[in-house]
Amino acid sequence: MSTRFILYCTLLFVLILPVTVLSTGAAPTALLETMYFSDPGIRIEAATCLAAGLELATEAIVIVAGSERRTEAIYTSPDGSIFSDEPDEGRGLMDPRWVEWPNIVDRWFRVSVSEQGDLLALQVSGSETPEAIELRGDLPMETPLQASVPADASGDLILLMTQTIGTNASVVVAPLALDDAGHAVVGPITETGIACDLQSSFSTVVLSDGRIRLYAAVDGKIMSWVREGGGVAFTAEAGVRIKPEDFAGLSVRSLSDPCCVHLADGRYRLYMTAEILVGDGTVSSAIVSATTPTPVW
User: Fold this and answer.
1) Which terminal Cβ of the chain has fewer Cβ within 10 Å, N or C?
2) How far apart are the C-alpha atoms of 17 and 47, rounded to whole Å?
3) Is 8 exposed, middle or buried (0-12, 13-18, 19+ CB in 10 A)?
4) Could you give the CA distance from residue 245 to residue 74 in angstroms, rounded to a whole number?
5) Measuring CA to CA, how many Å separate 220 from each of 172, 194, 200, 247, 259?
């Protein structure tokens, strides 16, 4: 057998194997969940991505978008690609930042940063005014910038993630529970070691195997971490999920505010804010997206 023939067979094997793995679904689940390819075009112009989710009843995609005037609006799309020019009004609990309260049907809540900017607040469906949350233990840094709750809440303990000011930003984790008087308490607070861009928000998604993946921006690129085994520790995943130069045809300077949605067809899609250089040399914000190529259930 000639050396040339052996080299030819080796090269053919290297070229065919990746195609075979992807086409047969034999690739590791973790790999398929972290391979993102940019979708062409802009989802919502002149907007930042505050939250995104899937409306189970209609399988429509819901995006909460922010404007330069710091107002919020909810947009929906049946295919998750083309969103209406005008936001939907009066849709109430479609906001994906609301999470169903554990073991209580039709009871929803949302954790947010209070208007004072240095406290966390809890709002329950049906209540007009958010209630301040008692913190058990000090925040490790300074003022909280963001608070969110993964949608896998179980029992009376819920993981709370909050972003705090530092050189960049730090994500911390704490259990959220109700005390004997029915008031929300948080703590103790544990640092995850996740450092990300200060100007970006973060988000989480529950994976097909029950783990929680956290997405955040680092140096204008979207990265991810996974919580293993139900604890509070997050492990950084190798590589970059999506970066500015992946968006062909758009002069994207940086990416931030990633929000992940597990689509009805099994794929994962990231919606995020892109800072885009427009024709007159100015920078404009827009919501763009990137999607995994293969369904993962």
Assistant:
1) N
2) 41
3) exposed
4) 28
5) 21, 15, 9, 13, 15
E runs forming strands in 115-220:
120-124, 131-132, 134-135, 144-148, 158-165, 169-178, 184-186, 190-196, 203-206, 212-218
Which tokens belong to 215?
């997405």
Q: Looking at this protein, which amino acid is placed at residue 198?
A: L
CB count within 10 Å of CB 230 equals 11
Q: Tokens for 193, please give them.
A: 């070691």
Which residue in this structure is represented by tokens 């052996």?
Answer: 6
- Rounded CA Rg of the chain: 21
CATH C-level class of 33-291 = mainly beta
HSE, side-chain direction, 13 A CA sphere, residue 260: 30
Q: How far apart are CA 224 and CA 139, in angstroms?
A: 23
Contact between residue 112 and residue 127 where contact means Cβ atoms under 8 Å apart: no
> How far is 198 from 145, CA to CA, in rounded Å?
9
Question: Could you tell me the residue ranges of all domains in the chain?
Answer: 33-291
Per-residue pLDDT of the chain (297 residues; tens, 9 = 90+): 444 443 344 333 333 334 433 443 444 566 778 899 999 999 999 999 999 999 888 899 999 999 877 789 999 999 999 998 778 765 555 789 988 887 777 788 888 887 666 678 888 888 888 888 887 766 655 678 888 888 766 666 778 888 877 778 888 888 888 778 778 888 788 888 899 998 899 999 988 788 889 999 999 999 999 987 766 778 999 999 999 999 999 999 999 999 999 999 999 999 999 999 987 789 999 999 999 998 887
The reported pTM is: 0.85
Cα–Cα distance between 18 and 4 in angstroms, integer?
Answer: 23
Cα atoms found within 13 Å of the Cα of residue 233, Cβ hemisphere only: 3
